[in-house]
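INFO  loader      accepted 1 record
INFO  loader      residues=188
INFO  predictor   begin
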Amino acid sequence: MNAPDTLAPTAADRPAHAASPAHASDELRAALSEAGLHAPVTGGAADADVRIGPLAPADARQLARLIRTGTKRTLKTARALREICAGHRIELPGLRVRQGRITLGPVRVEDAARLARVLGAVPPPAARPAPVAGTDAAFVGALLGHVFPEATGGGALSVSVREEAPGLLDLGAIDARTARRLVRALRF
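INFO  predictor   done
INFO  writer      dumping tokens
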């Protein structure tokens, strides 16, 4: 007896979560369709500009609910981080959620120094004079960059000095998990 011939797999045999579409517009179109939303999506071959066409009011409300549900924990963490920093008199005016990450943004050197102190940064050794009122941006940036991973249990934070504005530092983006650990560190 001969073994039965193997049939080629059909679309029903392939997993539903196969490789992502090649273009952002195709990916968005597929996601909207999977969510049961009907909206025309257009985008060029290079996806330089993806547009969502007119949505029915019910579909617009459902899309808004889906976005809020999908980002709820990250938005809640960003809000908690903003509140606890305000409680420590640390201003983070550029704190935003972007692409699932929390961007801390530009911060005054004095606020960065306060954040470093609250996270447990130790004063500089006596051999090096302390910066006057937190004006040494590079020193404060290095101090914050050093103490941040220790305080958050390994989360890294990029810190850069603004050349055109020496009184400001740019703090990078952290994932929501690191941000939650930062909130815990700032509470204690």
